[in-house]
Structure formats: C-alpha cells, structure tokens
C-alpha cells in the first residue's frame, strides 16, 4: 500500500512537471533548443505527427534539409521558427541566375508565407567539406546567397536570414580555442566573402559541432564527463592564449570558430549551432554511443543554454542551437552511429525523455539504462551464422563486394594468402569485411541483404589464423 501511495505521489509530481513544462514551451521567451528534422528513413510518422512530437519535446525551432511542402504545411500556424535548406546541387544555378533564385523562392517559400514562420534559409549543407565540388560549387556559394537575398526582399520575405552550414573541418586548427583558424584553401576565397555577407545582413555563421566525434578520437586525453557537460573542476581547461576557462568541450569548439572568424576580421559575426548531439547507439567499435550518454548530453545542453547561453569568449550571447535529430534515421549510410541520433524511434516512441527547454528538474526524469560496455574494441563484418546455407545468395553478395574498390578480394583468389580454407563461408566473411572496412566511412554498410553481421569476436578464432579489423592481414595457417 505504501509503495502504491509513493508511486501515485511520484506520478502526480511528474504530471505537474509535465504541465509546467507545457506552459513553458508555449510561453513567449521560453523556447527550447531547436531540432533537426531529417527524413532519411522509412515508415516515419506523418509530418503532422512529427510536429506534435517536436512540441512534446519542448522544441523551440525546427530545421529541415529541404523545402518539403508537406512539412512546411503542417508547421503552419504553430509559430515555430523554421529553417529551410537549399540543396547543394542547386547552388551553381542559383548563383548564375537571379531569375532562378527568384523562381526558387517563389516556388518553395512564398506560398507558405506568412502561415509558416520561416526565419532562416540555409544555402547548402557542409558544402566546404566536399572537395569534389570545390570547383563547381564553392565559388558559387556567396553569389547564390546574394541572389536569394534579393529574391527574398522582392517577395516580401526580407526578414528571412541567409546562411550556410559548415562542419568543424572548415578549420585547420581548433586547439587551443584561441588558435582557431580556417583552412588555407577556403579562408580568403570563400570564408572571408561569406563572413562579409553575414556581417552585412545580420545573419549567423552556422556550425555543425559534435563533441562526440572529438571525444571518440581522443578518449585518452579528453574526459567523457567534460564532453557531457559534467566535468569536475579538475578537468576544466584554461586557454593559454586568452586565459579563458572552459568547462565543456562544446564551448571549446565554438570559441575556436569565433577565433577563426576574428582572424579574418569578422569576430563579431553571430554564431549558431546548426547541428550537435550525441548518438544513442552505434557499431561495436564506436565507444560511448549509448542512450545514457545521449540523454545526458542533450539534457545538460538544454539546461545549460536555458540558464547560461553563450561561450567563454561570448558570455551571455544568445544563439540558435539545433539538436540532431528528431528520429533515428535507419536509411542513412555509414557507421552505426549515423542511424542513431534521434530523440524518437520511427514508431514515435521516445528513445529517452528530454525537455528541450532545459527547465525540467533532472531528478524528475526516469532512470536511464546503464552505459553499455562499448570500448572501441575492434569489430569485423562477417557472414551471419544462420545464412551460410544460402550459397547462391552468398556467392552473389561476395561477387558484389569483390567488384568494389581495387584488389578488395585479391587475397582470397586462387594462390592468394587467404584462399584457404576454400569455402563459400570463409571467403564471404573475408569479402564482406574487406568491403566494409574500406568503404564504411563513405557510407558502406555491413548488411549485404541481411547476410552479414558485425562481431567483436576475431574471425581468426574460427579459421585458425591471425586477423585484424582492417583486413585478414595474415592468413598463414
């Protein structure tokens, strides 16, 4: 009976918290973090249901990766500030023609104004990270923004601010923060004109900043707690160039961008975080990717921004911040983390509870699952144990894997060091792993129509030879 009474009381407290949070969500000046609404997944909830989920999480804004008319229609009347994106491939044509820019605005934004509150038009996504389009698109970036700026004003949409999202790899140096500097190949040719445009139009430099990746690549020197906004005073960092004290990794990354802008003469351009977050799952070798860390990062970020916005270099400066992402997107290529950044599963259930306004007391959240034991150990892609009998399908998958890249399967050809044992199963595991390790960062997956699986168990255990995650580098009996 006492337990039931306590449970009832606890439920009443949570209900009160939820009610207060709801009033906070809709109150003026009490908006939470923004959310990136990506759609690279199947069986996602409708746009209307997605808007409900955004509101339930306390989202204060939403950013989409196109100008999806269904999403923009269902955002009408919500009052949520919306950021819309121009696809990378459209940039050259928009730069070359004012008429094309006007047509794009007329087709994608004007019909939704003013019911849908579009506040930012982002021209391209991490354009300067893709060197394959350096010649075709980089020089067109600012001219496209200028043409769109004219078109927006001509269509009565002059309040919409232009920007573009850039990854942290636009910097050649970011540590210490005061040493932040843009890459030589873009600093004067692209970034300086971009900053000049942003400064003149009162817009933001949008940066995609992920402490997870910086931490995962430097786990021996960066504390996990420091990356999750809960570092002890002993883990704080003092920049020797400025004397500023840093209590978390995100601030370091953002102030490196601030320093880099200052070096080009535009240290006062406003900063916005177009993407940040923490993965809630990943491959076996992706340490720290779990629900506990994801919830901790996002909850702490929301609380931090609600109470103490800005960075050490810009204390109190308010800036838009967008979490990535609304959903776990199961069709995104690449490592497992790419498909596990969401606040919600595609079935609309939450991955963990979160209040993006940052005002819900931490103790009111239900307990989180323990962090898993992923420690970055090697992982291999092998033939799934129950699929070996389907030799026809396996042989076709092996043929596909071996046709990718150069010499991917040379070691299992007759006379090759890994030809033995000469079985479909052994060759399949080698081929799958050789393909995956070579292409996973470019989007390759360990799937092969359901025939493959990842494992942390060294495949050499089954075939009696030494191996490595990259390839079976030693195949001698």
Task: Write a brief structural summary.
With 477 residues, this protein is α/β, with parallel strands linked by helices.
Keywords:
477 residues, alpha/beta, eight-stranded parallel barrel, 14% strand
Explain what the structure shows:
By secondary structure, this protein is α/β, with parallel strands linked by helices. The protein contains 14 helices and 16 strands. It has helices at 2-26, 47-56, 69-74, 91-96, 98-108, 141-154, 187-201, 211-217, 224-227, 249-263, 291-307, 391-403, 424-439, 460-463, and strands spanning 34-37, 61-64, 82-86, 118-125, 161-167, 171-173, 181-182, 204-208, 237-238, 245-246, 270-276, 310-311, 314-315, 321-324, 380-383, 452-455. It has an eight-stranded parallel barrel with strand order 1-2-3-4-5-8-11-14. α5 crosses α6 (141-154) and α12 packs parallel to α13 (424-439). The chain starts with a helix and ends in a 14-residue tail after the last helix. The model is unreliable at 1-29 and 464-471 (pLDDT under 50).
């Amino acid at each position: 009976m006492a337990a039931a009474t306590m449970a009832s009381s606890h439920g009443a407290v949570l209900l009160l918290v939820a009610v207060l949070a709801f009033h906070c969500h809709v109150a003026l000046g009490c908006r939470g973090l923004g959310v990136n609404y990506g759609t690279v997944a199947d069986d996602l909830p409708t746009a209307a249901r997605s808007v409900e989920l955004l509101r339930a999480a306390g989202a204060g804004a939403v950013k989409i990766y196109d100008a999806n008319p269904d999403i923009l229609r269902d955002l009408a009347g919500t009052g949520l500030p919306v950021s819309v994106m121009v696809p990378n491939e459209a940039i050259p044509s928009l730069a070359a023609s004012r008429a094309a820019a006007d047509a794009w605005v007329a087709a994608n934004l004007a019909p939704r104004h003013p019911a849908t509150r579009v506040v930012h038009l982002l021209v391209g996504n991490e354009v300067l990270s893709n060197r394959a389009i350096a010649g075709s698109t980089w020089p067109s970036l600012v001219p496209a923004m200028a043409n769109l700026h004219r078109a927006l004003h001509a269509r009565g949409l002059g309040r919409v601010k232009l920007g573009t999202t850039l990854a942290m790899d636009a910097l050649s140096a970011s540590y210490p923060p005061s040493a932040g500097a843009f890459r030589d190949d873009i600093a004067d040719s692209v970034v300086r004109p971009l900053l000049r445009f942003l400064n003149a139009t009162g817009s933001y430099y949008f940066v995609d900043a992920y402490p997870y990746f910086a931490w995962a690549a430097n786990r021996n020197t960066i504390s996990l707690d420091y990356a999750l906004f809960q570092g002890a005073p002993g883990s704080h960092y003092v920049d020797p160039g400025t004397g500023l004290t840093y209590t978390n990794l995100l601030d370091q990354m953002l102030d490196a961008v601030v320093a880099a802008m200052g070096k080009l003469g535009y240290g006062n351009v406003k900063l916005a975080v177009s993407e940040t977050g923490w993965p809630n799952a990943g491959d076996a070798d992706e340490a720290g990717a779990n629900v506990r860390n994801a919830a901790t990062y996002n909850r702490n970020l929301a609380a931090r921004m609600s109470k103490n916005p800005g960075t050490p270099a810009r204390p109190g400066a308010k800036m838009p911040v967008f979490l990535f992402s609304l959903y776990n997107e199961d069709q995104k290529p690449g490592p497992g983390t790419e498909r596990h950044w969401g606040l919600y599963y595609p079935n609309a259930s939450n991955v963990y509870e979160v209040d993006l306004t940052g005002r819900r007391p931490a103790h009111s959240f239900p307990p989180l699952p323990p962090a898993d034991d992923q420690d970055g150990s090697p992982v291999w892609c092998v033939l799934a144990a129950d699929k070996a009998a389907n030799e026809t399908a396996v042989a076709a998958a092996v043929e596909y894997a071996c046709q990718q890249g150069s010499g991917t399967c040379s070691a299992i050809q007759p006379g090759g060091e890994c030809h033995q044992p000469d079985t479909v199963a052994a060759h399949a595991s080698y081929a799958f792993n050789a393909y995956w390790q070579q292409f996973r960062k470019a989007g390759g997956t360990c799937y092969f129509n359901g025939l493959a699986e990842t494992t942390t168990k060294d495949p050499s255990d089954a075939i009696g030879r030494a191996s490595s995650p990259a390839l079976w580098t030693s195949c001698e009996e």
